[in-house]
Amino acid sequence: MYGVLMIDIDSTSLTNEDVSLIKQAQVGGVILFARNVADAAQVRALCDDIRYHNPDILIGVDQEGGRVARLRNGFTPLPAMGRLGELFNRDPNRALNCAYDCGYLMATEVLAVGVDLSFAPVLDRDGISQVIGDRSFHQEPQAIIALATQFMRGMKAAGMATTGKHFPGHGAIAPDSHVAEAVDTRSLDEIMQSDMQPFAQTLPWLDALMPAHVIFSQVDDQPAGFSKIWLKDIIRDQLDFNGVLFSDDLCMAGAQAAGDVSARVKAAIEAGCDIALACNDRVAAHEAAEAAQELPYPNQNRIKTMCGNIPLWQGDLESTCQQFEYWQQAKQNVTQTFFDTKPEPQATNNHDSAKDPTAYK
After folding, report:
1. What does each C-alpha distance from 51 to 31, 96, 237 come to in angstroms?
2. Are the CB atoms for 129 and 177 separated by under 8 Å?
3. Contact (Cβ atoms closer than 8 angstroms) between residue 221 and residue 185
4. CA-CA distance, 316 to 218, in Å (whole number)?
5. Cis amide prior to 198 (ω within 30 degrees)
6. Which residue, among 5, 237, 224, has the nearest Cα to 124 in the 3D structure?
7. Vertex 291: Cα angle to 288 and 293 (nearest 5)
8. Which pLDDT score is estimated for 174?
9. Is 176 designated active site?
10. Are residues 216 and 231 in contact, defined by beta-carbon separation less than 8 angstroms?
């Protein structure tokens, strides 16, 4: 049985405490961070060990590309999605082809090491957000829709389910919800006509959504991930979305409005999330696991749609990825387009830092 909670682990191999946590009844997932990654073979061994102790478990990672990439040593680098947007402005057809290749390449290498899914793509608009920036494909909704659709086509061709984040859009407010409360004061109509369009118009390609820890104050006084209005009335009823709803990390500052971590887990699940994430706080993870015991199990068939097409390990990353017929071509195309040419100079702004905005994790 897949449980309602996704937690993290300490290091590159399982500790006794990790094993105790992942074997608890309501723990249905593990998310990996940079501290869990040494190289491809180690990650595959770690994932195999996790599944030995809990076969019914999803393993996820944030492998967006650019600043946000947990798998680095020995893996093919991926551009920030904003670079696809820049290419789209100059050469739309080439950008769309490259978006497909990026999605396929990312998915194959993540699946090869035993990870079911990367929480991707980011469907937020590139606006004033301190945490989104070039993680977004573009400022314009129609460009995001076009590029993200191609990226998801690539993911699905490789055998990976898709997760759109951060519904209904995090790009229009400056505060970073990882470290501060974030409030968007726009009307529902304004949000629906702009930021929500990339989500609404890519629904046929989306297997899951992750709501933002943002309070949209004219809609609800709770962050979207704790809001029945957003999760049930809008996502389930109005948009008729039947995929998985993952909470964002409940240890983020933007989730504090719901109380302690036990209250946050219960609030997220009761509002409509299928799986709640509790990361980077071991005490909180234990509290969350205890609180989750009182909750009903999620819809099992829905959760199973997120399981990745994990290939047989062939001893190294390259040999394993060769089982994907398009991997070599996708890798060549992405590398030649974004890493074999001198990067064009860019105007300095608050998005230019190479620092991962979620590196505190």
Report:
1. 13, 36, 35
2. no
3. no
4. 52
5. no
6. 224
7. 115
8. 54
9. no
10. no
**124 closest CA partner among 62, 168, 173:** 168
CB atoms within 10 A of CB 304: 13
Residues with Cβ within 8 Å of residue 309, at least 6 apart in sequence: 111, 158, 159, 160
Q: What is the pLDDT of residue 256?
A: 66
What DSSP element (H or E) covers 277? strand 275-278
Sole residue written with tokens 């961070």? 33
Of 248, 249, 274, 351, which residue is the catalytic one?
248
- As a residue count, the chain comes to 361
Task: List 117's β-bridge partners, or say none.
Answer: 60
Q: Two tokens at 45?
A: 């061994």
Report how far apart the first and last C-alpha atoms of the chain are (Å, whole number): 28
DSSP 315: S
Type and span of the H or E element at 283:
helix 282-292
d(CA 71, CA 50): 18
Evaluate whether 254 touches 222 at the Cβ level (below 8 Å). no
Q: Give CA–CA dist 220/40, Å, rounded.
A: 43
Active site residue 178: yes
The total of other beta-carbon atoms located within 10 Å of residue 55's CB is 7
**What are the per-10-residue average pLDDT scores of the chain (361 residues)?**
95 96 95 97 98 97 96 98 98 98 98 98 86 92 98 98 95 56 89 95 98 92 94 98 94 66 92 93 88 94 98 98 98 96 46 54 50
Residue 295's nearest CA partner among 30, 1, 22, 54 is 1
pLDDT of residue 182: 79
Catalytic residue among 178, 195, 213, 274: 178
pTM for the complete prediction?
Answer: 0.92
**What pLDDT is attached to residue 107?**
98
